[in-house]
Amino acid sequence: MISKNHESISELVTLASVRANHAYSQYDKLVGLTQYESIILYELFTHPRLSQKELVYRSGIPKQSISKGIHILREQGYLEVIPDDQDKRVKYCALTKEGKAYAQKKEAPLLALEMRVIDKLGPDRAELACQILNEWTDLLSAEIANLKEEKQKQ
Question: pLDDT tens across 10-28, in order?
């Protein structure tokens, strides 16, 4: 049986997640990017080089969408794919010079907005919010994976 307290906490977290997702979606629309293009640009703007696997893991976005975004940004000359020296199966993504300028234009304003939010919340509260939300997401994802396994067994 679900207690009223559990129910209201569940609703609060769900709505907070939906609202945060909507806020980022509104930003992406404002700057003319798809969600996956924006996340790839953001991640490569803040990390010089990441593999496709790392982009998928960090974002939680399906591999197909990340692949599509990589392809689009590569075609536009904003991204290059570099094979790993040790393992040719691993390909790293990095922004080109044009890609860095493009990411600066599209993602730097978002980073500035996020810094203002962190300043308003305070770094400790902002970090705690992120830790809790990540833990919530990991636990919820594990529960959904368990449910999926149970349904597949039926």
Answer: 899 889 999 999 999 999 9
72: helix, coil or strand?
A: helix
Which residues, other chains included, contact 137 with Cβ-Cβ below 8 Å and sequence gap of 6+?
Answer: 60
Answer whether 0.90 is exceeded by the pTM. no
Give how far Cα 48 sits from Cα of 5, 73, 77, 95, 117, Å.
44, 15, 16, 7, 24
**Helix, strand and coil in the chain, % to nearest 5:** 75, 10, 15
Amino acid at 153: K
The one-letter amino acid at 138: D
Query: Which run of H or of E encompasses 95?
Result: strand 91-95
Give the pLDDT confidence score for residue 60 in this predicted structure. Answer: 87
Low-confidence spans in the chain with pLDDT less than 50: none
